[in-house]
Amino acid sequence: MEYTMYNTLLQLPLFQGMSRIELSEIIERTKFHFVKIEAGGTVFAQGEPCTKLAYLLGGELTAETVAPYGTFSFVEVHDTPMMIEPYSLFGRRPCYKATYTAQGEVSLLTIDKQYLYGVLDSYEVFRMNFFNQLSARAEQLHERVWSITPQQLEGRLIHFIHSLCTTPRGTKILCVKMEDLARLLDDTRLNVSHILNRWQAEGLIAMRRKEFLFYKVEFLFDREYKRHCPAG
């Protein structure tokens, strides 16, 4: 059992760089939980207290964040390995920022916060790995605050989608009425619809009723980057 746990921990970013002795000590002193969630099951809910460090070890999760007043929601698809909101463990409001739902059966490894305190206190490498995760999140948010919003509507729409992403790649779903989206972008419904229909014709998105599926959002981000930073 310890050998299996040792191999599992070696795959996870927070345990990278730790010695075999350190990992063995952590396995002996820390209570780990392996959890399986059936397809469609809710893993964590938005607003629920974050009381454990959780890793997605197998399967896929969707993470849906509902905006204040329910104007729109944004969904991201995550696969393994993924640490679920380590930045929500501490702070003024330690609650999950999204609702995580299993797509097919998923497996998780969790550590209760009470045991996490001991590992953070006793192992410098683990502590630095954890701080690096939090710093990366803070840097991401700082860059968004200071990024300049494009003047053209297409650029503003891409910028809006990018501002909602926790990872700048993969499948994303924006659930919003066209009228509300136009209002958020301070433009007309017709202009917003024109751009979205063009993206659909290019195979970048699929439009459904009150829902816009972005197959690989990085294609849009790359397009906008090249527009402002041409080669040469």
Topology:
Elements: H1 2-10, H2 20-29, E1 32-37, E2 42-44, E3 52-66, E4 73-78, E5 82-83, E6 99-112, H3 113-122, H4 124-146, H5 153-164, E7 172-175, H6 178-184, H7 189-201, E8 205-208, E9 211-214, H8 218-228
Antiparallel strand pairs: 1-6, 2-6, 3-4, 3-5, 3-6, 4-7, 7-9, 8-9
Helix pairs in contact: 1-2, 3-4, 6-7
Describe the fold and architecture:
The N and C termini lie far apart (55 Å). With 232 residues, the chain is of the alpha+beta class. Strand 3 and strand 4 form a beta hairpin. Strands 1, 2, 3, 4, 5, 6, 7, 8 and 9 form a nine-stranded antiparallel beta sheet that branches. The protein has eight helices and nine strands. It folds into two domains: 122 residues, Jelly Rolls, CATH 2.60.120.10; 82 residues, Sandwich (Jelly Rolls). The radius of gyration is 20 Å and the shape is elongated.
Key terms:
Jelly Rolls; 9-stranded antiparallel beta sheet; 232 residues; single chain
In short:
The protein has 8 helices and 9 strands.
How many discrete structural domains? Answer: 2
CATH architecture identity of the largest domain: Sandwich
Mean pLDDT: 91
SS summary, helix count: 8
CATH topology of the largest domain: Jelly Rolls
CATH superfamily of the largest domain: Jelly Rolls
